[in-house]
Amino acid sequence: MIAVPTVSDSGVEIQSGSDEAVSLSRCDRDAAITPLAYGTCVLASALAQVAPLPAQVVLADDPTAAKALADAGVTLPSASESFVILLAGEAPLVVGSDEVGAMYGAFELAERLRLDGVAALGPMAPVVRSPATPLRAANLFLVLPAPGETSWWLLDLSFWRAYLDMMARGRLNFLDLHGMYALDTTLFPNALLYFATSSTYPDVGVPAAQRASNLATLQAVVKMAAARGIRVGLMTYRSDSSPLADANQALVNDSELQTYTREAARDLASSVPGLWRLGFRIGESNKPASWYKDTFVAGVRDADSGVSPYTRTWLSTKTDILSSLGAAAGESIVEAKFNGEHLGLPYAITGGNFVTPAPVAIAAAWWAPSYSYEDYLSPPAPYDFVWQVRAGGTHRIFRQASFARAKRTSTSYALAPTARGFTLEAPHAYFPQRDTYHDPSDIFSPWTFRRDELMYLLYGRLAYDPDTSERAFRAALAARVGTDALWPAVQAASDIVPWIQSAHTCGPDSRNFAPELEWGGNVAYWALPSGAAPLGSPEALHACGTHAAFDSFAIALPQEAADDLAGGRATTKLSPLEIAQIVLDDATLARAAASVSLDPANREARDVQRECSALSDLGAYFGHKLRAATSLAVYELSMRMDYLDTARAETAAADAAWRKLAEETKYILPFDDGLRMRGVLESPPLRWTPFHWSAEVPWLAQDSASIDAVAARVTAAPPAASRPDLPAASVWMATRRGGGPGLSALRVDASAMGRRVTATLGSGSPALDAVRILYKPLESTAPWQSVLAAPTGAGFDYAAEVPANAAMFAVEVVAAMGAGGWRYPDVLVETPYRVALP
Questions:
Q1: For the CA atoms of the chain, what is the radius of gyration?
Q2: Average pLDDT of the segment spanning 736-749
Q3: CB burial of residue 626 (10 Å; 0-12, 13-18, 19+)
Q4: What is the pLDDT of residue 17?
Q5: 102-138, pLDDT tens digit by residue?
């Protein structure tokens, strides 16, 4: 039991908007601190600001806890990291199932006190919490020094103290370090060369003194992390002997490299007390999976220090990974990409473009199966499966702080029992960790992760407790910017870029597309079917290799919507016109940030305000261009001039928005984005170094030129039939899809033929042409299939038989006479499929 002490300056927040204001406390001054003591100190800080009330933070085996829980009739969950908050008499009592649970309970109570003062305590019903997602990680890359960086961020313990404080506040319990990462080459040098020493080859790696300094820092980080309930893993992406991942190899003989790797892995596993995981990536290492079993994995096992191996699925196979892990498979973690290297949608895409073999229209290399979870969720799975939620492809420079999207994402991880959690790669992961994109007069923190702090809090806390109130996050933003008035605009702004990636992407890799920074081809290209032969040079297309909707199962391209209109069919996927309107509405709401009155001394508030304006411009650009492409696609099928005129008008509005974006981002200094905009490895290449939106303004002429080219082509070779029967362009573009019947229930039962699926539609169902059951196996690489469902005679039930291995289901509903079409579950509000494992 630890009684809450009186706190003077050890945990008091100092100034709104400063780094001190968002740090949990300075409660780690004692080298022997534990999570229990850390949480108790944070609670003491809150009590000092509210009222000098007695409080206790105890563990489950404390006699005080047993009596209080029994008196209140409350059961403490047995799962690790659980807690109960209750009143023992008139004093608050926090009971944890373990030290981390006690710490989280102390954080929860401290937050309630800061939000509501003493009123938070009474009358207070017991608060019972247990983690919904067991493993919640921050995936931080060990970025090598940036040009001009005189002091490497990695060796700065003030960075780690602030970063780990933030992780603890966000209920993140795993620091997942990957490395190394070289900004200039965008390659990933072998991390062992920076931290470990081989007894046979002691000079291999960076200089010994630097290795010793790096190792000492890692040891300190692991110790600080443990005090905050955070475990640490380190994964290397390569296994060669060049610290720069170039041709200058210290060891050229593979047998020597094997010896080095085994000894270095053993050394690192032995030298860092408390290190939890030590990992490797097989894909792109130029080594077969079998190579790792007797080198890296063997070295970790030789250490016998409590460290276990972990790995990634990238460009490998399940068979190979299980073989490489060997006997360690049962205690290992396997990480697979959630949705490639992008965070466009708040659920795991399955089927669609990830199908193997790839759809004819999509190049197989573009949608490699390793961009998704493949068969790693299917038995046998003797490992903990972790989603690698990579946000840095979609989000590079602007905040992502959507409460609704984070909540949906956090409730989507548990597709199968082996899925244990996620590791979040935030937008700053591939950039310098020190802020280099603000003018010195605008810098509000030396560290770029502060921009992304709210994202960490959202994804961590909502994964721990999906019912965490939005109010907690509003307060976190208000504490930094000095006002609650920016929250609605930040929410709208955070919705824009994910929709861009979802409705029109150039690929699943960070090197394929940067939706915050580029426009992904001219408007005529957007109007083409995915995989169609492009018109013009790669430069004219703005280097978009193959455009597609990110989830082609749930979202329609402009050409698909146009084809449905011309064919008299309802578009059952989410229409591009629906998405365009959502984004344009978001842009309007985001623009409202400009009218919020701010403290002129609060640099972060000013940054948030300007960012909302920039994202409003980007949303206006994308929304109008998506409308233009859809209208142009209809013109190509119908030769209706009103649709061509609409395409021109919408394109002009889009281009005007981009010019405004270029003006309103002048506060951001030109910066280097090596993964996409500099053009190191991506194809087709781009050559913007350094990058700024203003450099792309001359490209806008390609939009109107591409429309002229389409008009000339259609005039020379008109479509087979004109379409005077189509609605006026202004009417069709303004028409929103009507409400469908809705899905009341979806039941999956065993049957003699496999599985029987019954969909119960809403009671207000219109006259229907067809109801189809959409289904697929669990593997992401398996295609979606469909079967016509028949009415059962029981109300609004429709049923069909599907194969025994079907595990994922959706429903397509088509109204009679082309009156509408819908897919359920509705992608706008939930994951567009349900899972029922065989």
A1: 28
A2: 91
A3: buried
A4: 40
A5: 999 999 999 999 999 888 887 778 999 999 999 999 9
- Which pair of structure tokens corresponds to residue 351? 């089927």
Residue 202 dihedral angles phi and psi, to the nearest 5°: -65, -20
- In our burial notation (b when 16+ CB lie closer than 10 A, e otherwise), range 661-693 reads bbebbebbeebbbbbbbbbbebeeebebeebbb
Looking at every residue in the chain, the average pLDDT score rounds to: 91
CA atoms 518, 524, 527, 533: torsion sign: negative
Dihedral angle computed from the Cα positions of residues 118, 119, 120 and 124, in that order, rounded to the nearest 10 degrees: 120
Per-residue pLDDT band at 362 (split at 50, 70, 90): low
What is the Cα–Cα distance from 472 to 469, expressed in whole angstroms? 6
User: In angstroms, rounded to a whole number, what is the distance separating the alpha carbons of residues 501 and 516?
Assistant: 9
User: What pTM did the predictor assign?
Assistant: 0.95
Q: How confident is the model at residue 26 (pLDDT cuts 50, 70, 90)?
A: low
Q: What is residue 30's predicted lDDT score, i.e. its pLDDT?
A: 54
**CA atoms of 260 and 238, how far apart (whole Å):** 13
Evaluate the omega torsion of the peptide bond into residue 690 and state whether it is cis, within 30 degrees of 0.
Answer: yes
Q: Give the whole-angstrom CA distance, residue 407 versus residue 469.
A: 10
> How many CB atoms neighbour CB 789 within 10 A?
21
Q: Rounded to 5 degrees, what angle do the CA atoms 271, 277, 283 make?
A: 115
| Number of neighbours of residue 497 by Cβ within 10 angstroms | 28
Task: List all residues 6 or more positions away from 589 whose beta carbon is below 8 Å from its beta carbon.
Answer: 488, 489, 491, 492
Whether 44 contacts 53, CB under 8 Å: no
| Predicted confidence band of residue 29 (pLDDT cuts 50, 70, 90) | low
Count of CB atoms situated within 10 Å of the CB of 114: 16
